[in-house]
Amino acid sequence: MLADHIDIQGHRGCRGLMPENTIPGFIRALKFGVTTLEMDVVIAADYSVVVSHDPFFHHYISIGPDRLEINEKNMHTHNMFKMDYPTIASYDVGLKPHIKFPLQRKMPIIKPKLSMVFDTIEAYLKANMLPTVQYSIEIKRKAKYDNQFHPDAEIFIGEVLKVLAKYDLNERIILQCFDIETLQLIHQKKPDIKLAYLIASSSNFEDNIDRLGFVPDIYSPAHKLVDTELLQYCNEQGMKLIPWTINEVSDLKRIMLLGVHGIISDYPDRAIKIYKGLQLSKG
C-alpha cells in the first residue's frame, strides 16, 4: 500500500534536531529534502504574525531578556499578544536545552515573523536551485482565549491573509487548525487556499467532517487514529490523509505502509530515510 509519493513535512522545521519554528530549523529541514515546512503562527500586540507554537514563551525553550528565567509558573505571563515584535525579538528560543529533544543543536535565535520566513526560505531555494516547497501553517486559535492570548478568529485570519497577500505563494500554502470556526471562516473568505483539519480526539471521522460542514483538502489526525478504514474514507472523499506527529521508526513504517499521503515528523531526515528504504524494498 506504500504511496508512490509521500509529502514529508518537517514539524516545526525539524524540532528533533534544531530549535523549533526557527529559520535555521526550516533551512536544515530543506537540506534533508522535505516537501513541506510545517509551522505555527500567533499574533503580537502590534499585529505582527509571529511563527510560534504557543502564544506565550514556553519554559521548555525560552530565555527572557537579560537572561530572565522563564519557568512553568510564570511562562503564561510572557504573553506575546501583549508584546510588540521588537519585545518578542528580545527573547531567546534556541539556547535552552530541550528536555524532550536532547539532540537539538543549541544556538542563539529568535522567533521570526512569518514574512521573515517567506523572504528567507524563498531566497534560499532560489540561490541553491532547490525545488519549491509547501508551507503548512497552523493558526493557533482557541475561542476561549480570544482577546486574551490572541484576537478573535476574524482578526486572526485577516492578519494572516494580509501577509499571504504580499507573496505569490497561494498554490503552496496550507492553512491548518483544530478549531472548526477558524477553518469555516477561512473557507468562506479564501476558498482557493488549501485547508487541513487537525484532529486530536478519537471521534468518528464522518461526524468530524459533518461538523466542519465541508470536505477539506487534508484530514490530519494524530497518527494513532489512522487505520485502513480512515484511509479508505479519505480517498473516497478526495481528501489527503496526513497524520501527525510521527517520530518512532516502527510508527513511521506502519503509517507509510498503510498508504497515507503525507507524514509530519520532528525528524524529517528519519522519515525520508525510511520512506526511501521502503521504496527500495517495494522494488
Radius of gyration, taken over Cα atoms and rounded to an integer in Å = 18 Å
The succession of helices and strands, N to C, reads: EHEEHHEHEHEHEHEHEH
Enumerate how many helices there are, as a single number. 9
Q: How far is it from the N-terminal to the C-terminal residue, by CA?
A: 13 Å
Looking at the structure, the CATH topology is TIM Barrel
Looking at the overall shape, the CATH architecture is Alpha-Beta Barrel
The average pLDDT is 97
CATH superfamily: Phosphatidylinositol (PI) phosphodiesterase
Number of strands: 9
Give a structural overview:
The structure is a single chain. The protein has helices at 23-32, 85-88, 114-127, 153-165, 180-189, 205-212, 228-237, 249-258, 268-282, and strands spanning 7-10, 36-43, 49-51, 134-139, 173-177, 194-199, 218-221, 240-241, 262-265. The mean pLDDT is 97. It is built from nine helices and nine strands. It has a single domain (7-56, 111-282), classed as TIM Barrel. The radius of gyration is 18 Å and the shape is globular. Helix 8 (249-258) packs across helix 9 (268-282). Helices cover 33% and strands 15% of the residues. 41% of the residues are buried. The protein is α/β, with parallel strands linked by helices and 283 residues long. Strands 1, 2, 3, 4, 5, 6, 7, 8 and 9 form a nine-stranded mixed beta sheet that branches.
Compact overview of the structure:
Helices cover 33% and strands 15% of the residues. The protein is an alpha/beta fold. It has one domain: TIM Barrel.
List descriptors.
single chain; TIM Barrel; 9-stranded mixed sheet; 9 helices; 9 strands; globular
